[in-house]
Amino acid sequence: MNNRHYNIYFHTHTVSGIVISVVLFVIFFAGSFSFFRDEIINWERSESTAITREIQLDYNKALKNLDKEYVLHGRNITISKPSVENRVAVYMEGTKDTLAPAKQKEGTFFYLDNKKFKSYTYEESYSLGEFLYRLHFLAQIPYPVGYYLSGFVALFFLFAIITGVLLHWKKIVSNFYVFRPKEKLKTLWTDAHTALGMIGLPFQFVYAVTGAFFMIKLLIVAPAVMALYKGDQDKLYKELEYNDPDYKFEYKKLAAPFDVNQLVSKAKSNWSDFEITRVFIQNYGDANMHVLVEGELLSEKKFTGIGKVIYRISDGKEIARKNPVTQNGYIDVVKNVLYRIHFGDYGGYALKIVSFVLGIITCFVIISGVMIWLVARQKNNLPEKKRRFNAAVVRIYLAICLSMYPITALAFIVTKIFYPLTQDNLYLVYFVGWLVLTIFFIIKKNDAFTNKFCLISGSILGFLIPITNGIVSGNWFWTSFMENKIQIFFIDVFWIVLASLTLYTAYHLKPKKEIIAETKA
């Protein structure tokens, strides 16, 4: 590689990496915990449920209860299961009956407990698992700023990955095995950055591509809609199979009784290992009422196996079917594969744990990249003012990033003690606590102290998480294991292991004199 190309790749890699480093760290740190979103939700609520994406619900009883509260006649009702928990998501459109009272013409969204049939608003159902999941794509920043910001950060990260590979291409194998912890500081950080970057390369590439696609796909799709579909967005959605069939409301009450449970069971029995993930009821109680039952084959049987059946209620006939074994085309594969590989929901706990580890490794790659940048700019030939500015920039970076660990552990404890913690109070605990810690570390002006304090305090709080859970709910991790409450048991043991590893790391950190000198600059 000639010097010109090397310099282009080097500076592109450095600039794109440094500009996005803090936001990228937040995305990957929160995203790593998001792999356990369902477990965190169940742990917080002291609940345990079947580990399946299939909806566990008595539809007839649920609809009967909802009819008393909302009057379902003429409504379109969607029942889905966004996560593995004891609540299903229910979206009801306003009734199509023009003679109905105004209140019945209003749509609503809520979560429904699948056993007690108690409904919860989104705010009432908000949890730490949901918070961390949404934090990893910056949803707390008003829409669409947060979404676009996270999307463009993912895009810049893709540039950093590609230019990093091009920089190390010729020595990609030899450098992977090189690690010299006793050499000078820049060499130490460079070796760690290169080796760990290569370990996590496939993982990072996948998440850069899928993250950019999910967050800024509107900007990608918009030109296609204007050029290919002449601005007809509905036509695009129809071809992508995002829109359900629309059946006319006939203003006649359905004469025959209907059994949604029976229809769901009938649809499920069409294919073995088929899980029902969505039920869409159109024109409830009307003569032209239809029920769409949608689901997926188990991922170990077929990675993309989406199927659906539509029933006409007036005569009980099946009027449409999509076979998950033989009728999944290119569009289904593209839509499903991107989601599957991003969420990592197809390989059980083994894949989630591996994904978490790779996510944390990526966080270290980000930090080591920042430290390389700092050490390279602390040379004696640089003016003192510039060196102090560079050190201050990195101090702020590290303060923001590293303080996420203890504040996340603290959030687990607070949400358990004060359950149910409202969305506003959770924001207050996490963001205010994060801000206080960040300001404290910036004022302290000691990066080695910031690192060690965050590891030790996070570890101590991590050990307190299962203890708090045992005291508050009585679900000690050994009793959870004996009672087969797998999600609760997993989170408690997860924190014990994580806290042990970070505490071990903290007490084996031996900062060099070189580090101390730089951080005091």
The gist of it:
The chain is α+β, with helices and mostly antiparallel strands and 521 residues long. It is built from 18 helices and eight strands.
Structure, described:
The chain is an alpha+beta fold and 521 residues long. Helices cover 58% and strands 9% of the residues. It has helices at residues 3-34, 37-45, 59-70, 128-135, 145-168, 185-199, 201-228, 233-239, 260-268, 330-343, 348-376, 384-402, 404-417, 423-444, 447-473, 477-482, 486-507, 513-519, and strands spanning 77-80, 87-92, 108-113, 119-120, 274-282, 290-297, 306-312, 317-322. Strands 4-3-2-1-5-6-7-8 form an eight-stranded antiparallel β-sheet, covered by helices on one side. Strand 7 and strand 8 form a beta hairpin. Helix 1 (3-34) crosses helix 5 and helix 7 (201-228) crosses helix 10 (330-343). The chain is globular, with a radius of gyration of 26 Å. The two termini are 36 Å apart.
Total beta strands: 8
Mean pLDDT: 89
Give the fraction of residues assigned to helices. 55-70%
**Low-pLDDT segments:** 513-521
Broad structural category: alpha+beta
The span between the termini is: 36 Å
